[in-house]
Amino acid sequence: MSNFTKANIECLANMPMLVDAMSDTIEKLQEVLMTYYPKIEEELSDFFNNNKRLRYGITRERENGCIYAFSDDYKKHHLPKPERIMKITSRIEFAKTTKNSTNNEFAVQYGYWNEDNENEIYFLISGKSPVVKKLGESFGKTTNENMLIDDDKVDIQLPITADFSEEQIEKTFEEFRDNILRPFLELLKGKTL
């Protein structure tokens, strides 16, 4: 009695094509997503350079286009059992710096996420701070269906559909920049929204 289903056998027979298609697709998506890293980094750097009294700066903790296939643990070099997950992650962390420590740490993160029923491009800002919570509260009930808000993160998602395009990624990035990132930075300066 075989443990393989018909779908398992078809998948194995077509594995070279599937792996090739997945590799090519993930590589192209990674190339597109990595173009947003310098845009976000420049936005943050310009803001912090123009607001030195806030004493915030970008930290060394960064990721740009890291691919996680069948696991979200970057330390795993082998998989005893593959998980049903695929993601591409970019992350820029920043924090308020004092003489001997950093605090009020935040992160801008974006990328591609596929797990369970989720298949999306996302942009988010996170941090355990009243500033993130206040940003979320500023949206009230006017949020769109692709925006998620909780006490320590605000993010916008672009579900992958049959009409997916680079233009949709750009529009989602602009919505994130204009409606989440920039208002967040204004809150850091102490301005109300």
Protein described:
- With 193 residues, the chain is α+β, with helices and mostly antiparallel strands.
- The chain has one domain (6-188).
- It has five helices and six strands.
- A six-stranded antiparallel sheet has the order 1-2-3-4-6-5.
- Strand 2 (85-97) and strand 3 form a beta hairpin.
- Helix 4 crosses helix 5 (166-188).
- The mean pLDDT is 84.
Apparent shape: elongated
Strand order of the largest sheet: 1-2-3-4-6-5
Number of helices: 5
- Number of E-type strands: 6
Q: Ranges with pLDDT <50 over ≥5 residues?
A: none
Class by helix and strand content? alpha+beta
- End-to-end CA span: 65 Å
Q: Using only CA atoms, what is the Rg?
A: 19 Å
Main β-sheet description: 6 strands, antiparallel
Oligomeric description of these chains: single chain
Count of individual domains: 1
Mean pLDDT: 84
- How much strand content do the residues show? 25-35%
